[in-house]
């Protein structure tokens, strides 16, 4: 069963979540402040982090920023109810999902399971992918190695979160094809698109920034009111 890291200083909420998650069979690590959370995240094989924003010693944003320097561990952030700024900032910094507080423990459990299923599916896909002898998919100057999950853009190695990698792989699998926001929300985030939910758009924005721009690189184009498509470079898409 997966190992989860809960970084939460609210003893009441932490106790409730700990009891529920352990009853569901998860191994749970608990940190009461941001500094302890970062140490535990880096020193243990953690499958997913549940991260509060308002924490002693180091807030959730700072913890996430430092964690993303060397780890792509999936992160669900707990934000103040209705605080859109916190949600947007968290997603921009690499959080995979968010849930407003006070949250339903059962909804959090459902989000955890959905995110873990997505990561597991990506790993299975990587193992099963045999696009060539090397398994490397080349799109102009973009290279994706499904086995190692390594992505390079014009020889630059990109540090992508699990969600960003899943989003890129989905777009690359449908070159020059319009994918609706609803479709991408289901296939990448594993949830139905809700009104005013900007999480998918923030993940697209983050991915665009990391891909950068160049003559030989594909571009993620927005089709207003419909969705996104991967506009291919002039060079033909090929498998290396």
The first-level CATH class name of the largest domain: Alpha Beta
Beta-strand proportion? 15-25%
Total strands: the figure is: 13
Separation of the first and last Cα atoms = 36 Å
C-alpha Rg, in Å?
Answer: 18 Å
**Domain module tally:** 2
Query: Strand pairing plus helix content: what structural class?
Result: alpha/beta
Throw out a few tags for this protein:
240 residues; alpha/beta; Arc Repressor Mutant, subunit A; 5-stranded parallel β-sheet; 40% helix; OmpR/PhoB-type_DNA-bd; WH-like_DNA-bd_sf; transcription cis-regulatory region binding
Explain how this protein is built:
Keywords: Cytoplasm, DNA-binding, Phosphoprotein, Transcription, Transcription regulation, Two-component regulatory system. GO terms for molecular function: phosphorelay response regulator activity; transcription cis-regulatory region binding. This is DNA-binding response regulator. By secondary structure, the protein is α/β, with parallel strands linked by helices. It folds into 2 domains: 119 residues, Response regulator (Rossmann fold); 109 residues, Arc Repressor Mutant, subunit A, CATH 1.10.10.10. Helix content is 40%, strand content 23%. The strands form 3 sheets. It has a 5-stranded parallel β-sheet with strand order 2-1-3-4-5, with helices on both faces. Helix 2 packs parallel to helix 3 and helix 6 crosses helix 7.
């Amino acid at each position: 069963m997966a190992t989860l890291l809960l970084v939460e200083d609210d003893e009441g909420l932490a106790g409730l979540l700990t009891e529920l998650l352990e009853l569901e069979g998860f191994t749970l690590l608990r940190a009461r402040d941001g500094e302890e959370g970062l140490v535990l995240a880096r020193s243990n094989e953690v499958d997913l982090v549940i991260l509060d924003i308002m924490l002693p010693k180091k807030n959730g944003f700072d913890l996430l920023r430092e964690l993303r320097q060397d780890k792509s561990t999936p992160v669900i952030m707990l934000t103040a109810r209705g605080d859109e700024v916190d949600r947007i900032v968290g997603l921009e910094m690499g959080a995979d999902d968010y849930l407003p507080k006070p949250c339903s423990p059962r909804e959090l459990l459902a989000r955890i399971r959905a995110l873990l299923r997505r990561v597991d599916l990506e790993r299975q896909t990587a193992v099963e992918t045999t696009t060539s002898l090397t398994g490397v998919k080349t799109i102009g100057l973009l290279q994706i190695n499904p086995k190692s999950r390594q992505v390079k853009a014009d020889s630059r190695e990109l540090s992508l979160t699990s969600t960003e990698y899943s989003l890129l792989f989905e777009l690359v699998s449908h070159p020059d094809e319009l994918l609706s926001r609803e479709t991408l929300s289901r296939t990448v985030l594993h949830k139905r698109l809700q009104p005013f939910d900007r999480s998918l758009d923030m993940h697209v924005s983050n991915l665009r920034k990391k891909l950068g721009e160049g003559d030989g690189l594909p571009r993620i184009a927005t089709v207003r009111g419909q969705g996104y498509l991967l506009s291919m470079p002039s060079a033909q898409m090929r498998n290396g």
